[in-house]
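Homework help board

Subject: predicted structure for assignment chain

Our instructor gave us this sequence and asked us to write out the predicted structure in token form, then describe one feature. I got the tokens but I'm not sure how to describe them. Can anyone check?
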Amino acid sequence: MKTNNQAKPKASEVHYWLYSTGNFANNIIFMMVGTYITYFYTNILGISPAMAGLVFMVARLVDAFTDPLMGIIVDKTNTKIGKYRPWIIAGAPFLGIMFVLLFTAPNFSMTGKVVYAFITYIIYSLAWTIVQIPQLALPAILTNDIAKRTRIQAIFQAFGSIASLVVSAWALPILDKLGGQDNASAWFKFTVIFGAVSAVIFILSAMSVKNVDVYDPAAKNAKTEKKGFSLKETFSVITKNKALLCVLIAYGTDMFAFQISNSLRMYFFKYNMGGRTDLITYIGYASTFVGFALVAFIQPFVKKTGKRAGIIGIEALAILVTLPMLVTGLKGAYAISAVMFTYIAITFTWTINNMLSRSAVLDSANYAQMTLGINGTALVNSTFTFVNKCCQAFSMFFSGIILSATGYNKDAVEQTPGCLKAILLLCTVGPIIAYVFSIAAMYFYPLTRKGEVEMQEKLDKMSFVNLEDDLIL
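My token output:
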């Protein structure tokens, strides 16, 4: 018997914060695409809203294959520089380049522009998959503490909220400084700057956990000694995972609601609110404040309620805070106070739900490990990434179809009453319906707070046993 005195490295509070900086890069790109790509396609590139929606939908068909494939690849990765970091570091520059190309408007024919939109959006989506799946799976190695994971997600989201502030509050003023909101060159310059910044931050974030995400010789030895799982068994972490199914439905419906509101925000404030796009700035500041404020409160909140009860309560609140904007809008006289109350309150509810859902996805990976005996953390997270992109695509596709059907005209100063009403309903009634589905899904979520505690105890015991095995050669 020979003893190895090197224990497995543990993550510290510093690791949580440095890793989380990567979400600034992630959200700069994701929020820019979610908020402005439809507007860019219709008003800058010049394609129809319906065609823009078709671009998003076709990309999701590709993602249905590439996302789970990437999850399996990451789960099997075990290199000298770690499991997750290699993909983030290698994919970041690629993603930055595709971000720039996505917001580039070449002087092609209409057919050429449509083809260009299809190609660049699909490749961008692939680049995002390469970076985000390992990025989202990485917290699984930072801690087994289920409540602490939620706190990590809170820190992660706090840095993301800074990016949301940049996008919602500063993007339009920066574009104005660079040449104007309807100037193709301004969009290109903006994405070059922030695409490069994001790529660097992605890499630095990944490098910050180099002492935690390390080569695991024990895992390599285990592969040679044990029979591998079949493809069907591997995918059982998704197909037989009730916890994951509930989270994906709950998060997906909530994200669908958020993305509809997000993708139409520019249209709503420009047309329904009489050109008051300056108000978007305040939503960005509110998002940043909420993101950092929740870092201190989210862990004790989850310890008390658990994710199941927490998400149900937050979604019920989201329904209530959406009503003021809907009621005043239907009366035909938009009250700035009601609209801003709803948007800022939804920022609060969505931020909390996003934190809880992201952490619950990691819990569902552990749930599969406990019930099926298969560790497929990255594969489970690939479903989250896929649902995230699907919700963004479905919301923009749905919004594009409705805008086209109600007579949206990018050259018109004022839109038709039918178009204005459609924008209002998509930003309010659509989300309310989605929140109801989210509540229903979480009602069937199998992990109560007691179940979370029991699962964490089992994980801690497994980690202790694995550590003992590593000390014996």
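Reply (TA_rk): Your tokens look well-formed. For the description, you could write something like this. The chain has one domain: 15-215+238-467. That's the kind of observation they're looking for.
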